[in-house]
TrEMBL record, chains A, B:
Organism: Perkinsus marinus (strain ATCC 50983 / TXsc)
SUPFAM superfamilies named in the record: S-adenosylmethionine decarboxylase
Entry annotated with the keyword Lyase: yes
Annotated NCBIfam families: SAM_DCase
Residue spans crossing the bilayer: none
Disordered, as annotated region: 1-37
Similarity comment: Belongs to the eukaryotic AdoMetDC family.
Protein name stated in the entry: adenosylmethionine decarboxylase
Lineage: Eukaryota, Sar, Alveolata, Perkinsozoa, Perkinsea
EC annotation from Swiss-Prot or TrEMBL: 4.1.1.50
Keywords: Autocatalytic cleavage, Decarboxylase, Lyase, Polyamine biosynthesis, Pyruvate, S-adenosyl-L-methionine, Schiff base, Spermidine biosynthesis, Zymogen
InterPro entries (alphabetical): AdoMetDC-like (IPR048283), S-AdoMet_decarboxylase_euk (IPR001985), S-AdoMet_deCO2ase_core (IPR016067), S-AdoMet_deCO2ase_CS (IPR018166)
Length: 395, 395
């Protein structure tokens, strides 16, 4: 999982790289020790689907095909749960979710997510006959951009690959967006619409919380000298992860000497949350993502609980949602709170900034950055050296 | 006003330049004839001010000093009106407004706005003893970025100068933002806070409409073989500009063979609107900016009227406002419409996208892009050749 090229990332000098140069220098000075990039790269792809049970859609992609695609991304499957409407995979780096009409792949570290994209689309479209509808690539600004490899070394190269691949599969109108300050916490999106469809009322959304600077008492819960289902389940229990959403069935793994991942399925067989924890002090990070459809009150409470588990020094919250979800969260009285709205976390966190982008037809995306009101003074009770992780052969 | 370097703009290859390459190629193919870049670069600077009448603040900057600063930007003053709380200047390229506590400079074409910044700040701070509070630089994506000169040839170079100058005057935390798609209609902002002040309830805002693809019957109103106050006043009258805001006193100039600028003062002596028109078919553009404080209904009606004067094929609307303005526009019932909200122009225009950025404390900025619902089929009744403009010596 660790790979530290001695040279900087490939690709041309660039505006955004230039603007980030100062930021990088700072991060390099702070981190003389090895670091792990918890920040995930994420691809979400929607396919046209008949809605008929017999039509497997993207779930027809075989395990061996996924192994091949993920090998290109330089990660592997370590756990698989087949749910009613969803295949949920834990990867050596993050997670993969496959529904009939949707694929979500998240990979962290220095994986090469975009390296598997063409093979995936080629198989889905040309071999399985699936029809592409929408492709969305996103990621937060990296903690350690200088350690990223291949096209992930620069936004320019990422966008170049996305533009080329999307064009080859029929969409020449994709575009890139940077939400937030170029030289600070920001979120990158690539959006490509392969078909003009009315996606207003699918009630489709995705909420992602990216948490940094976890305190010692939280980090220490995700260290263990052995990796097994029992150890991982203990971590889910003791950390409070099991209590984030009532009735969630948590499939968890842990890494040695530290690290944790889980996919949790909710009772409808298509809702999930997924958590990935990088507990090393020098690069502590935890992410929580969910697609659960619920009221504004329950969603805000879910966010509060997820944040309460990890007590981050700062976090970013992204929300990509169709108009149906926005209306549902607003409620009949139009008073429901959207996840990114100022003030949701006022007691413990202060919102630093909010960016929103609304597309013409159906979706909006937002990212908010928060910082903890508590003064952070870590008490150094946990080993601070980030060392290579291994997953037990049990998985 | 025209300057067409045979080589591309200076500066390093860059992400955003790379991402725009395709767009540029398109625009170059479309425009073999000379073009004028109507899109303004804009600087807004707030100073600490005592509020006392005897304290001139930034209005103490002399005419000869402005001549010197504007010469660095490569433009000149062609008209000046001293109002109660505001000096309003029409420039050879756009406008300059000076209040005790605020300066707004807009320059279009291939002017070098940032080239005058250091001299301006040096004079204001070190010679007049003014205290900087906030500096904001913004511009829409250029129609013809390949013709921009100096640092305006790349976002990277613009940001580099802004970062350096702001740092030298005490602010190292400035940041750049791109609102909208990197390879499409977007708006660039640089924001630097020199002081942490509560600017929530100054009722300060700025609304800017940048209109493209004006129809022939609109463009033809801004052509004339002679330039004079009488001709310009006729243009203000016949185009409907005089009727945009009741009671506005319009100070207008025109250029030969075409082009028009005005500053209009409203009755409180500090509110204004300003309009700049580039009527050539190959690059038609008009901008309308106002700082008028009014109800949501009146503001939306003002926008409607400004858009109705120019009937653009597409336009972008930006709004930078403090929380006081937002609350005032929302009204007591919280139902007031903000200028950028979807649906304001539903009859004639379709909103393509909206980007919003909310800062932690006090301000929010937004940009929305609209396209006309009418099918555009220009009937070629007006000369399409853009030729050098001159301002009559009368001004």
């Amino acid at each position: 999982m660790y790979d530290f090229p001695t040279q900087g990332p490939p690709g041309m000098a660039s505006d955004i790289k230039q603007l980030m140069r100062e930021e990088r220098r700072d991060s390099q000075e702070d981190s003389q020790e090895p670091t792990f990039e918890g920040t995930e790269k994420r691809i979400e792809i929607d396919f046209v689907w008949s809605g008929e049970k017999a039509d497997l859609g993207a779930r027809a992609i075989s395990r061996s095909m996924w192994d091949k695609i993920l090998a290109l991304c330089e990660c592997t499957i370590v756990s698989h749960k087949a749910l009613k409407r969803l295949d949920a995979y834990i990867l050596s780096e993050s997670s993969l979710f496959v529904c009939a009409d949707k694929i979500i792949i998240k990979t962290c570290g220095t994986t090469l997510l975009l390296q598997g994209l063409r093979t995936l689309l080629d198989h889905a479209v040309n071999e399985l006959g699936l029809e592409l509808e929408w492709l969305f690539y996103s990621r937060k600004s990296f903690l350690f951009p200088e350690f990223q490899r291949g096209v992930h070394g620069s936004l320019e190269d990422e966008v170049s690959v996305l533009r080329e691949v999307c064009k080859d599969f029929g969409c020449s109108t994709g575009n890139a967006y940077v939400l937030g300050p170029l030289n600070g916490d920001h979120w990158i999106m690539w959006n490509a619409d392969f078909k003009e469809v009315d996606s207003n009322y699918r009630y489709d959304h995705n909420l992602d919380i990216m948490m940094y600077d976890l305190p010692d008492d939280v980090r220490s819960k995700f260290f263990s000298s052995s990796a097994s289902g029992t150890v991982a389940d203990g971590m889910s229990e003791e950390s409070g992860i099991c209590d984030i959403y009532p009735g969630a069935v948590v499939d968890a793994i842990n890494f040695t000497p530290c690290g944790y991942s889980c996919n949790a399925s909710l009772d409808d067989g298509e809702s999930f949350f997924t958590i990935h924890v990088t507990p090393e002090e020098s690069c502590s990070y935890a992410s929580f993502e969910t697609n659960v459809r619920c009221s504004s009150e329950i969603l805000v409470e879910t966010i509060r609980r997820a944040v309460a588990v990890f007590k981050p020094g700062r976090f970013s919250l992204t929300h990509v949602a169709d108009n149906g979800i926005i209306k549902e969260l607003r409620g009949k009285d139009n008073l429901g709170i959207l996840p990114y709205e100022h003030g949701v976390f006022d007691t413990d966190y202060k919102v630093k900034a909010t960016s929103t982008y609304r597309w013409e037809l159906d979706y909006q995306a937002s990212v908010s950055s928060y910082v903890s009101r508590r003064s952070l003074s870590p008490s150094k009770t946990v080993s601070t050296i980030a060392s290579p992780r291994t997953v037990s052969s049990e998985y």
